[in-house]
Design brief:
Its cofactor is FAD. One of its GO terms (molecular function) is oxidoreductase activity. It comes from Actinomadura barringtoniae. Belongs to the flavin monoamine oxidase family. The protein has 495 residues and is an alpha/beta fold. Among the domains are: 181 residues, 3-Layer(bba) Sandwich (FAD/NAD(P)-binding domain), CATH 3.50.50.60; 130 residues, Polyamine Oxidase, Chain A, domain 2, CATH 3.90.660. 34% of the residues lie in helices and 21% in strands. It starts with a helix and ends with a helix. The chain binds flavin-adenine dinucleotide.
Length: 495
């Protein structure tokens, strides 16, 4: 046995143990060896039962489950790393901070199970003290343990609470995964969230916070996105509160060592089944399956899984052309514009000031912040989101300009101590070729009701995964893992 095949076998054994409940949902595999037949990293041709395009959480999870079910798998990943939108942003001193996905919540059980299997521990997001609210030039502090939770007590708060209650109730009539089937789907998909929010709130405070709800969850303007899409996003997360809250919500927990540890460890177990630096350019459906052409390698397989957002899948040349519903969907499902800016300090000084490190602001580059410090608080890391219009305003900015803009926001929110970090770092996603933005693809009006079913419907031997296809926690790491588990079952059954 060569070193490579020994490694592969060891990796597969670990996978079988790791995949746990997800794998036991698959039919028991035959006596066939559960190995991938990945070719050496530089081989120009390879074959497998299944070729997976994309080594983000969805693609990696699908690979794990299919290998456990006895299928051979090759994963083609465009970047030189696994994880996609989950990425440890280098801080310049040999350490990293989450530049992409970061938080999970208690109902995000599939990403939690995967992390546990990978031996990645979790710890609570720092949430002690008051939050900062900056609006109309005025800074105020507010506690988040009252009935409003994370909602800042703006003058428009009653107006806002009524609006949030209404959208929460509307979302209850949506079946996760099938928003287009809701009784009012046509009505809700014929307007943007902006249109609805202006018709259903009066105060400028409520309107600002409704826009901020969209900015901080989807990184788009409220006028970019269909009301139906937002209602489905809420339904998929189990309500408004799980989306916006830290305590009890989707921002409650972080990963020790950074979220990227989860995909990196899973990728390590998949070993040679993953080929990096292999952007897929074309997928041809043939009589016997698919031929997938990537830089440096051509893979033949019985089935293909495209595991990424619809917008990025749209860059691949499909031959013959895909059905119009899918091809047009990929033209109509844009990504948000999002970036993270972090300042690293000797201590998390805001904690001593009685602050959580969480803030919402109506001006400046950063509109929301979190405490990104490590669990032992051996240093303080403040993270700010630069969303939608704010990041596009920095299109032509130099690194110095971006640093100045980020620190200006931090200083406004946390005082002069924020002006002198040890170092700063910045990661934007909307000009990343293999992501095109983030955190998630969104649907403008008219898309879900007309093209929505094409999100998941296979096109012959080509199947679709990615967080955008998930019924539960779509847009999140949990949704990505769930989509990988769902597509693995789908493909295993079809083979
Ligand atoms: C700034 C930011 C903050 C976020 N915060 C959170 C958070 O706190 N909590 C949370 O749960 N989620 C968060 N998310 C969302 C989360 O990152 C995603 O939901 C999840 O990672 C998506 O995984 P995926 O596998 O569906 O897609 P991706 O991660 O996008 O994976 C797709 C993969 O396909 C590869 N690829 C693309 N095109 C090709 C091609 N042609 N050939 C080969 N490979 C290709 C890409 O390189 C990538 O590796 C955040 C995202 C961003 C950007």
């Amino acid at each position: 046995m060569t070193a490579v095949s020994r490694r592969r076998l060891l990796g597969t054994g670990a996978l079988t143990a790791a995949a746990g409940a997800a794998m036991s949902a698959l039919p028991a595999s035959s006596a066939r060896a559960q190995t991938s037949r990945a070719a050496p990293q530089d081989a120009p041709n390879a074959s497998a039962d299944v070729v997976i395009v994309g080594g983000g959480l969805s693609g990696l999870t699908a690979a794990r489950d299919l290998i456990a079910a006895g299928r051979s798998v090759i994963v083609l990943e465009a970047r030189n790393r696994a994880g996609g939108r989950v990425y440890g942003m280098p801080l310049g001193d040999g350490t990293t901070s989450e530049g992409g996905a970061e938080f999970i919540g208690s109902t995000q059980t599939r990403i939690a199970a995967l992390a546990k299997d990978m031996g990645v521990d979790t710890f609570p997001t720092y949430n002690t003290g008051k939050n900062v609210y900056y609006r109309n030039g005025k800074r105020s502090l507010y506690a988040t343990d009252g009935i409003l939770g994370a909602v800042p007590p703006d003058w428009g708060v009653i107006d806002l609470e009524v609006a949030l209650l209404n959208i929460g109730n509307m979302a209850k009539s949506i079946t996760p995964g099938e928003p287009w089937k809701a009784a009012k789907a046509e009505e809700w998909d014929s307007q943007t969230f902006y249109t609805w929010s202006r018709a259903n709130s009066l105060s400028s405070g409520a309107r600002f916070l409704l826009d901020e709800f969209i900015s901080s969850t989807l990184s788009v303007r409220s006028k970019d996105v269909s009301l139906l899409y937002v209602l489905h996003y809420i339904a998929s997360a189990g309500g408004v509160d799980p989306l916006i809250n830290t305590k009890g919500g989707g921002q409650e927990t972080r990963f020790v060592g950074g979220s990227q540890e989860v995909p990196l460890r899973l990728a390590a177990k998949l070993g040679d089944a993953i080929r990096y630096n292999a952007p897929v350019r074309g997928i041809e459906t043939t009589g016997s399956g698919v031929t997938v052409t990537a830089d440096g390698v051509t893979v033949t397989a019985k089935r293909a899984i495209v595991a990424m957002s619809p917008a990025i899948a749209g860059k691949i040349a499909f031959s013959p052309g895909l059905p119009a519903s899918r091809a047009q969907l990929m033209q109509r499902y844009p990504m948000g514009s999002i970036a993270k800016f972090v300042g690293v300090y000797e201590t998390p000084f805001w904690r001593a000031d009685g602050l959580t490190g969480q803030a919402v602001a109506d001006s400046g580059a950063i509109d929301a912040t979190f405490d990104n410090s490590p669990p032992d608080a051996s240093r303080g890391i403040l993270m700010g989101f630069i969303n939608q219009t704010n990041i596009r305003k920095l299109d032509a900015a130099s690194a110095d300009d971006i640093r100045a803009a980020g620190l200006d926001s931090f200083t406004k929110l946390y005082g002069d101590k924020a002006a002198t970090p040890v170092l700063t770092a910045f990661q934007r996603w909307d000009n990343e070729v293999w992501s095109g933005g983030g955190p998630v693809g969104i649907a403008p009006p008219g898309v879900l009701t007309e093209y929505g079913p094409a999100l998941r419907t296979p096109c012959g031997p080509v199947h679709w995964a990615g967080t955008e296809t998930s019924d539960i926690w779509t847009g999140y790491m949990d949704g990505a893992v769930r989509s990988g588990e769902r597509v693995a079952k789908e493909v295993h059954a079809a083979l």
